[in-house]
């Protein structure tokens, strides 16, 4: 079920049943001469589309422009970098509309600079936007001192459950640390090229690896769609467990 293509009755039903709303988050970033610059977003969106074919989800449009940084290449190679503070504000506005609209099971699923689930700028921006929003929303709707009121006497017992407000928004890697360890993870090399070629074959042209001597792409010569399918399988099994 796609958010942008669904009608109000179906969306209200999904909200009431707390069907997870998932948002793919990625970047437009240089991935060598052999991979499309939308690689990160394509992987996050491709995994969620496949998960939605397995179970009921509401899939939101991807966030294509993210905090890419110019660590790999500058704008001359088509990287688009959004300032982390600006990106945080943008994500905050999206989440604010969703929370005020009644969504209570939101997942931001990221594929970019998430090696072993380390906290890098784009991930931190999403997490900060979510926590800031939830704290403001609770104070605005329940008043100052909301947490200290007797209404929240069972706060610790409910922590992490569906009624816990801080479980309304979750930030996840498209490939968890466990999935990365079971297969592999890199930037435009053997692993990322494999999963991208399995998700969207037209986004990869292996014969162009020879166009550059950049160190991070050389292992892409060993990539394959078959390896990518295994990465997809492992990642989907993990996402299926973590998206509740």
Describe this protein with a few key phrases.
single chain; 244 residues; alpha/beta; Rossmann fold; four-stranded parallel beta sheet; 8 helices
User: Helicity level, as a percent range?
Assistant: 40-55%
Query: Rg to the nearest angstrom?
Result: 19 Å
The backbone outline, from C-alpha atoms, is elongated
Largest sheet: 4 strands, parallel
Domain count: the total is 1
Q: Name the structural class.
A: alpha/beta
CATH topology term: Rossmann fold
Strand order of the largest sheet: 2-1-3-4
Which CATH architecture is right? 3-Layer(aba) Sandwich
Strand content: 5-15%
Order of helices and strands: HEHEHEHHEHHH
Continuous helix count: 8
CA-CA gap between termini: 16 Å
Superfamily (CATH H level) name: Creatininase
How is this fold's topology laid out?
Layout: H1 8-16, E1 21-25, H2 39-54, E2 58-59, H3 84-100, E3 106-110, H4 121-142, H5 155-158, E4 169-173, H6 177-182, H7 190-199, H8 225-242
Parallel strand pairs: 1-2, 1-3, 3-4
Helix pairs in contact: 2-7, 2-8, 3-4, 7-8
